[in-house]
Amino acid sequence: MKAAKHVVLAAIGAMLLAGQAPPAAASSHTHRAEGVVRALDTQAGKIKIEHGPIRSLGWAGMAMVFDVADPGLLKGLKSGDTVAFELAQGKDGRFAVTSITPRR
After folding, report:
1. Average pLDDT for residues 84-100, to the nearest whole number?
2. CATH code, 68
3. Does 49 reside within a domain?
4. Which InterPro entries does the record associate with it (predicted)?
5. pLDDT tens profile 39-58
6. Is 19 helix (H, G, I), strand (E, B) or coil?
């Protein structure tokens, strides 16, 4: 059991060093955060947000690219906007932005 625990910890450490976040447990729970939009891809339905810590996920602040649940959420946003947003984890384990509001 101890060996398996060390293997898991080593794998998570390697992912963090490689710039990947460890997988979080699947959940229908939403997670709230604030950040700054760094890039938008409206055709692909993706947004890059530099966010602060997301305590409910145990994530430190970082810049990440997220899918958006509805590409219409990106309408009116631009790079440099400060936003409040919510994330939810899909069945595939990936997190998607489910709501986003500019902070003016």
Report:
1. 95
2. 2.40.50.320
3. yes
4. CusF_Ec, CusF_sf
5. 999 999 999 999 999 999 99
6. coil
How many structural domains are present in the chain? 1
Residue 77: pLDDT above 70?
yes
Q: For residue 87, which amino acid is it?
A: L
Task: Identify whether 91 is part of a domain.
Answer: yes
Angle at 72 between CA 69 and CA 55, to 5 degrees: 45
Q: Are 85 and 32 in contact (CB under 8 A)?
A: yes
Query: CB burial class (10 A; 0-12, 13-18, 19+) of residue 11?
Result: exposed
Torsion of CA 36, 39, 40, 44, to 10 degrees: -130
75: pLDDT confidence band, cut at 50, 70 and 90?
very high
Give which of 85, 91, 101, 90 is closest to 31, Cα–Cα: 85
Q: Which domain holds residue 74?
A: 27-102
CB 80 within 8 A of CB 37: yes
